[in-house]
Specification:
Blueprint lengths: L1 H9 L5 H33 L5 H31 L5 H8 L3 H7 L19
Helix pairs in contact: 2-3, 3-4
Length: 126
């Protein structure tokens, strides 16, 4: 028992904030997986019914929720790993990992600008 306590004391996190961010990223990843399950249920219900217009757009929000939670989890994980490894610019590493452009712009330092800088030319179908 004493040996276990000594072992834990010597394994204290080198970066408490980095370790906390890693735990938060895991929580977000878990929520993302749960929202994917919810999104699958919503998609199943959409296929079984004749949703259109605003109802269909609202149903697509379930997919957006899953995507954003996954991207936030990845962002925080990479940022935390950068802090723990004492990377030169952990924020840049994390921002470079974000695939959703609008989310990246909201996470970047400075004023929030939700307008794309240029058209990406990509179309996502749900």
């Amino acid at each position: 028992m004493i040996q276990a306590a000594t072992s834990l004391a010597t394994q204290a996190p080198s970066s408490p904030s980095g370790e906390l961010l890693l735990r938060v990223s895991q929580e977000l990843a878990d929520l993302g997986r749960a929202s994917e399950t919810l999104q699958e249920l919503v998609a199943e219900k959409v296929r079984a019914s004749a949703l259109s217009g605003a109802s269909l757009l609202n149903a697509q929000d379930a997919d957006l929720l899953a995507q954003r939670l996954a991207e936030l989890a990845k962002f925080l994980r990479i940022y935390a790993e950068g802090i723990i490894s004492e990377a030169v610019d952990p924020m840049a590493l994390a921002l470079d990992s974000v695939l959703l452009g609008a989310l990246c712009r909201r996470l970047a330092p400075g004023p929030i600008n939700d307008e794309p800088k240029q058209a990406a030319g990509e179309l996502e179908m749900f």
